[in-house]
Write a structure and sequence with these properties.
Blueprint: E1 5-11, E2 15-21, E3 27-34, H1 37-45, E4 51-56, H2 61-68, E5 74-78, H3 91-103, E6 109-111, H4 118-146, H5 163-168, H6 173-204, H7 208-214, H8 221-231, H9 240-247, E7 251-254, E8 259-262, E9 265-268, E10 274-278, H10 284-298, H11 303-311, H12 316-337
Helix pairs in contact: 4-6, 4-8, 6-8, 7-8, 8-10, 9-12, 10-12
Length: 352
């Protein structure tokens, strides 16, 4: 007798709504539980027979997949954009629909979890947090000197060499003490950053996607690890525009006066959208990674293309943005296909 269970889970930060269907599609159980490991595992272990589970791709998808995979027969993480929207959208109905689609093989998995990324995500966040703290300390140091009319361009002020000379420029003992503590804090953070970087690179080497990302111009081991850690899976993004927006590389625009009156009739205005710059809600680490990759590629393998676009009258900053988008698009495409970067397939357009 087939006692298989098909479980649809509508996962939220605090609670998870669950619907359990049997082999003929009858809902045999429903529950609302906390989105915590003990509650989730206890519910799954209470189900008899082969248990098949599905839930939508989201912030907690990788963690949840790795949590429950050892305890069930199948886990399918699906793309919510590929599921048709119902008129009456609610948590319980969503869970029931997911269970039915799983039972009838109507879902396509977007994340298989052969190499869980939870550890990599945590190490990436750790590295990113330490890096952000280091930048803050550096900005404070320069702020102290600049506030007293002392020029400190470049990075020499951060070096351990010559710190006595920098301190001699300060004639206030209290300010000098403050600067000394900032130097000590920077040294501690530098040591922690080096440790975090080693751990991150070691973990990233376990993932096949790292090799794919490293094949792209401008992306080295550390940038590949950061991209993989913060993105987890490329299937979260259906188009390159969605990925650009997440990485802070998308241009935002707005329309003013969308409608107008012509001969007494309401017509759509022909005014062009006003460009308002790049989107402000984005992942800062990913933006830094792709912009850094663009700078490296522009001075390396894509130098001729960079020079050609600048010679065509485009500002160098805008060319670098174009290259960053190009690299992000390539990363998304080859990662989805599981292929290494092939320069023969690349076509540059010198117009931005």
């Amino acid at each position: 007798m087939d006692t298989s269970k098909y479980i649809g889970m509508d996962v939220h930060m605090a609670t998870t709504v669950i619907a359990v269907a049997d082999k003929v599609g009858k809902i045999v159980a429903e529950a609302v539980i906390e989105t915590k490991p003990p509650a989730i595992l206890d519910f799954l272990k209470s189900q008899r027979g082969a248990v098949h589970v599905t839930f939508e791709e989201g912030t907690q998808a990788a963690w949840l997949h790795d949590l429950i995979r050892p305890h069930v027969a199948e886990v399918v993480v699906c793309n919510p954009r590929e599921i048709s929207v119902q008129d009456n959208k609610a948590d319980k109905s969503d869970a029931k629909r997911l269970a039915e689609l799983l039972r009838t093989h109507g879902l396509k998995a977007v994340y298989h979890g052969e190499h869980g990324t939870q550890a990599l995500k945590e190490l990436t966040r750790s590295y990113g947090a330490i890096l952000s703290d280091s930048i803050r300390v550096k900005n404070r140091l320069k702020g102290i000197f600049r506030g007293r009319g002392i020029s400190c361009t470049g990075t020499t002020v951060y070096s351990k060499k010559g710190r006595d000379q920098w301190l001699q420029k300060i004639d206030n003992n209290a300010v000098g003490s403050r600067i000394s503590k900032q130097f000590k804090e920077l040294d501690c953070l530098t040591e922690l950053r080096n440790e975090a970087e080693k751990e991150l690179l070691a973990e990233a080497r376990k993932h096949p996607a790292t090799k794919i990302l490293r094949s792209i111009p401008g992306i080295g081991p550390l940038r590949a690890a950061v991209i993989l850690g913060f993105t987890s899976t490329p299937h979260r993004f259906r188009t390159k525009n969605q990925f650009w927006k997440y990485c802070g590389l998308a241009v935002t625009s707005e329309v003013t006066g969308e409608y107008t009156f012509i001969d007494g009739r309401v017509c759509r205005s022909r005014k062009k959208p006003l460009v308002r710059g790049l989107n402000i809600n984005y992942n800062h680490a990913l933006k830094d990674a792709f912009k850094g990759a663009a700078t490296t590629a522009a001075m390396g393998v894509w130098r001729s293309d960079f020079n050609a676009m600048v010679a065509n009258g485009t500002r160098s900053s805008l060319v670098l943005l174009t290259l960053a988008r190009k690299i992000a698009s390539i990363a998304l495409a080859v990662w989805k296909k599981g292929e290494l970067y092939d320069s023969k397939k690349l076509k540059f357009k010198h117009a931005v």
